[in-house]
Design goal:
Blueprint: H1 4-23, E1 32-34, E2 39-41, H2 88-103, H3 112-121, H4 127-140, H5 145-157, H6 165-175, H7 179-191, H8 195-207, H9 215-229, H10 234-245, H11 252-260, H12 265-281, H13 285-301, H14 305-322, H15 325-333, H16 338-351, H17 353-368
Antiparallel strand pairs: 1-2
């Protein structure tokens, strides 16, 4: 069996690699806490998740790049690389800044979508200020599932509990069949050490019929607003929106709770169910990893070596995939191929990030075998 430190290292490597490559989110090492039992990360940035907007197919004629047009591809692992004066991270920052600059004008807008897009894009806002802005939005638009979701997520990011039970009740009224909402509530209850509240919320989530983390909804919200109000290209809009939408939900408090109360059978079983559901159902890679970490903690406490081996095989697979050259090259190719980006977004919405990323790699490899394919801009 692998040593504990190796397993922890693999999980951390996956988190760091994914965040740096895919979303350009900085890890604040001063707020990260690790121990030998499981992964417990606290982060100041609020988590955000998934808008269901149909994206129209656009036929983009491939361009011929003079430096690569004569290259014959015989390598099965070959993926076209486009030369650029900017790094991948510089492209992402540029797209994010463009999106934010355009959305600043909606600060005083009366249009619901514009208001919410502005709150989402205002990443310079303090966490408490964001909560207050979302409270006002939900008061004005109480039936907004996305607004209620964002409010509870923002509450979960505060160092101390500043949100009362009425916010939870309003969110449940609008979205009570969503397991992810109940897991968000469990995290809030863990923040105030409400033991029965945490267990009850997890159990409600385990029986809820739907699961939606609202990440793609947030991306599509911003992309649609930018489409209606700016001259930005589709790739600039969607990647800018993704950068604005940020990372996943950070269930730091409920993760700590599960570790600290692992000696109680009912809590341990509820937490194991939470971990299994996150790993199986979440559309974001980050929450899948958290799900594996929760299960890892449970099986260590119960000395279940066979399950631990199976979990580590999953983390090994994720680690190998996320750190591979094919993923990095395919990810960069999305900057230049609109059809590839559109297909990827549709996969994110329907099947989640992992399946979408596998699609991008397979499609990039397939396209690169065609010597007439080259989306790179002309010199």
């Amino acid at each position: 069996m692998l040593k504990n430190i190796v397993a922890i290292g693999l999980i951390v490597l996956i988190l760091v690699t994914f965040l740096i490559i895919s979303r350009n989110v900085d890890i604040d090492t001063d707020t990260a806490k690790l121990d030998e039992n499981a992964l417990f990360i606290k982060k100041n940035d609020i988590g955000k998740e998934n808008t269901e907007v149909s994206l129209l197919d656009v036929n983009v004629e491939p361009q011929t790049h003079p430096d690569l047009s004569s290259e014959v591809n015989t390598n099965d692992d070959f993926i076209i690389s486009c030369e650029s004066s900017k790094t991948y991270e510089e492209h992402l920052n540029e797209f994010k800044n463009n999106a934010q600059n355009h959305l600043k004008s909606f600060k005083d807008s009366t249009v619901k979508e514009h208001k919410l897009a502005y709150i989402l894009s205002n990443t310079n806002a303090k966490e408490l200020s964001r909560v207050e802005s979302l409270k006002k939005f939900v008061d004005e638009f109480p039936q907004s599932k996305l607004g209620n979701w964002m409010l509870l997520t923002a509450c979960g990011a505060l160092e101390s509990n500043r949100c009362d039970d009425s916010l939870e009740l309003d969110a449940i009224t609008e979205n009570g069949d969503n397991a992810a909402l109940w897991f968000n509530i469990a995290n809030l209850r863990a923040k105030r050490n409400d033991i029965e509240g945490v267990v009850g919320a997890i159990q409600e989530g385990l029986t809820a019929p739907h699961y939606n983390e609202y990440w793609s909804e947030q991306v599509a919200l911003v992309e649609n607003v930018l489409q209606d109000t700016t001259p930005l290209s589709y790739i600039e809009r969607v990647i800018g929106a993704m950068e604005v939408a940020g990372g996943g939900i950070w269930h730091a408090d409920v993760l700590d709770f599960c570790r600290e109360h692992s000696n109680r059978v009912d809590i341990a079983e509820a937490c194991l169910g939470l971990g299994e559901k996150l790993a199986k159902t979440s559309k974001t890679i980050i929450l899948k990893i958290f799900g594996l970490a929760i299960q890892d903690s449970f099986y260590k406490a119960h000395n279940n070596d066979s399950e631990l081996v199976a979990l580590r095989e999953q983390t090994d697979k994720l680690n190998e995939w996320l750190t591979g050259k094919s993923w990095a090259k395919a990810n960069k190719l999305k900057l230049y191929d609109e059809n590839l980006t559109r297909g990827w977004i549709e996969k994110v919405k329907s099947e989640g990030e992992l399946a979408a990323s596998e699609y991008v790699i397979e499609e990039a490899l397939r396209l690169s075998r065609d010597n007439n394919y080259n989306p790179c801009p002309k010199s």
